[in-house]
Amino acid sequence: MTNPLNAARNRRWFLKYLAASPVLAASTREALAATVAEMQTRPDDPYIWRPFDPNYIIEKPDDALDLFDFEAAAHKKVSSAHWGFMSTGADGEGTYRANRQDIAKFAIRSRRLRDVKTVDASRELFGHKWSMPFLLCPTGRNGMYHADGEAGVGRAAGRHNIAQGLATNVTFGVTDVNKARNGTPVLFQLYQQENWEISKSLIARAEREGCKTLLLTIDGVSARKDLQFARGVRADSRLCMECHEVRPNNPKSPILSARKGGNFTEVPPDLWDQKFTPDKMTWEYVKRVRDFTKMDIFVKGITDVEDAVMCAKLGYGVWVSNHGGRNEDTNRSSIACLADIAPAVKGKVPIVVDSGFRRGMDVVKALAMGATMVGFGRPYLWGLGAFGEAGVDKVIQIMKAEVIAAMQQVGVTSVKELRPDMIIRAL
Ligand SMILES: Cc1cc2nc3c(=O)[nH]c(=O)nc-3n(C[C@H](O)[C@H](O)[C@H](O)COP(=O)(O)O)c2cc1C
Fold it and tell me: Whose CA, among 40, 69, 137, 271, lies 20 to 30 Å from 161?
């Protein structure tokens, strides 16, 4: 019997061979290279039965049945470099894959014969009562995927009373996105800037704009190897400098921190630099941020139980995340980290978890395991890339319906009833 993986590999190899052939016209070679890059965007999701099919494309948001339906639609519309950036994991993408695989390793006990007609899935966190126990994670420069950008995401999330993280490097800055959300401010994510004065200016602005929560991301401490991204850039015939500021020594290396329209507009020009390398990201740095702002701080990127316990001791919210498998290839999934961390934190501080959560039942399981809220990143970017704000809106609608259905199915009517003893390690 033919192994479909081998067949796909052979097809890819043959197309690659053709793309390199000097007898073909340059435009044909480019088209073939782009096809190869598309075929490499990601392996099938290990935790769905249906293989990833880049040719099954929904035409409008209402056609979507689950969050995965937006993926191929966005893939079609978003340029290969930007798609590569969004979809990439680090190195061999083992962590990215483990995030999905391990969700299946925790099964849930479903209780029957309970009245679950009316379900309240609301959750209080970050000083507000949200309609749902899930949130949209901060992701950089959403304008890459659709002109609606973070403002479109904000309008959709605000409409549904859903929490939203706003990244440091964005197309729409905190002032615009808070306006778009029309009521509740974003959770402001900070990438440490090499120059503390710039970090201070970003924090002060977020605070002035009414933000109550700072997400201090601590997990990007090295130069990453994003292979899908690098391949996507190669397959993209456009020049980055047509839309981005680029680094002087590399025309294919865009600078992510926009000075126009983003979060950096108030940084005095004489302070401007392009480094946000967190080379000295330590507990002392977290304390420095603590001493500077009144906002609640969540430390985003915790994967180890001892780090989580330290957060709890120091009064920081724990944000369990491996950045969607984008920073290191350790094969430790977020849900596995949560399984260790939640019992050790003992409810002293809230826990948010992200990385790999795609379905209502995934969210419900993580809540039962001790997460206060569950975040996701790529799925709403798929919605955005496919249909702009309307796509994000539909992603939220689907997730809301799935969370409620999952709660009914396991026999609870409020998130408080989800308890660790409802979870069984399935493997
Ligand atoms: C395209 C992309 C850009 C991201 N940018 C940021 C960022 O700027 N700051 C940050 O803290 N996390 C960033 N993240 C990580 C997300 O906040 C979140 O941890 C991750 O997306 C969760 O995994 P999931 O995409 O599998 O749901 C990014 C993730 C993606 C996919």
Answer: 69
- Give the Å distance between the CA of 22 and the centre of ligand 1: 40
% of residues, the chain, pLDDT over 70: 86
Residue the block writes with tokens 């001892």:
306
As annotated, the active-site residues are 323
Residue 378 alpha carbon, nearest atom of ligand 1: 25
Determine the distance separating the centroid of ligand 1 and the alpha carbon of 163, expressed in angstroms.
15
pLDDT value of residue 3: 39
- Enter the tokens of residue 30: 């480019």
Residue 239: C-alpha distances to residues 79, 235, 242 (Å): 12, 11, 6
Query: Which amino acid does the sequence have at 168?
Result: T
Of the pLDDT bands very low, low, confident and very high (cuts 50, 70, 90), residue 267 is: confident
Tell me if 338 sits within 8 A of 354, measured CB to CB: no
Q: Identify the pLDDT of residue 209.
A: 98
**Tell me, what's the pLDDT at 2?**
36
Cα 181 to ligand 1 centroid, rounded to whole Å: 20
- Give CA separation, 57 vs 52, 64, 72, 75, in Å: 11, 9, 6, 9
Strand partners, 300: 217, 319
Rounded Cα distance between 325 and 356, Å, is 9
Q: Which of 75, 137, 337 to mutate to test the pocket of ligand 1 (most atoms within 8 A of CB)?
A: 137
Q: Which two tokens stand for residue 419?
A: 């308890």
Query: Is the pLDDT assigned to residue 271 strictly greater than 90?
Result: no
Residue of minimum CA distance from atom 3 in ligand 1: 139
Domain ranges of the chain: 97-425
Q: Which two tokens stand for residue 184?
A: 């509740």
Whole-number pLDDT of residue 41: 55
Above 90 in pLDDT, residue 269? no
Specify the pTM.
0.90
> What's the pLDDT score for residue 1?
33
Protein residue whose Cα sits closest to atom 6 of ligand 1:
139
| Contacts by residues 145-151 (CB-CB < 8 Å, ≥ 24 positions apart) | 145/74, 145/78, 145/82, 145/86, 145/381, 145/384, 145/385, 146/384, 146/385, 146/387, 146/388, 146/391, 147/388, 148/384, 148/388, 148/389, 148/392, 149/384, 150/176, 150/177, 150/180, 151/176, 151/177, 151/180
Token output for 155 = 């309008």
Is pLDDT above 90 for 10?
no
Q: Which is the closest atom of ligand 1 to the Cα of 217?
A: 11
């501080």: which residue's tokens?
Answer: 349
Cα–Cα distance measured from residue 390 to residue 99, given in angstroms and rounded to the nearest whole number: 27
